[in-house]
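Memo to structure team: turn this sequence into structure tokens by end of day. - J.P.
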Amino acid sequence: MKHNNDSEFVGLERIKTRQKEQLVLFERWASKNQWSNFHSSHYDWWMFPIDEPSSYGYAWTVYEGDIAELKKDREYIRCYLRGAELLALSWGWDVNKREYIVDPKPDQKWQHWPIRLYKASKSLKLFGFHADFESMSLLARSLMSKGESMVYGERDLGGLFKMRSKKSNSPPFVQE
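Reply from structure team:
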């Protein structure tokens, strides 16, 4: 299995520490209905690591070997999934129910950050959380059906959401 051996890599312990610190902030913001803080903060690299370099180079990049190690840590995974749940709630989406929440707060809505939806979704897929990936994909497809762009910079990120997870028994997307 491939591991990130790049000299820029911060290491798994640093990823775990930053993720836990970020989840404390997520929980605080959610408890105070400060959903706009989700939209104006930076966190995707350590909350939802993926197998692609970022503006930080390979510092927060993980590969299948790194993911396998992270998945052994139950607390990390608990925080990881809770982080995905709270991020989705910041967009007005309930990951578990696979639907928009009823009566969202004013800032609890899509904020036109397709890169965040892409990173969180791709991370969920890489970590093997297929139901959560499918839920986030359902959100993305719903947004795209309403005319929302999944283009970030010069890159169209929408392709990720058109693929179904291999282990999914989810129903196909139904337009509202």
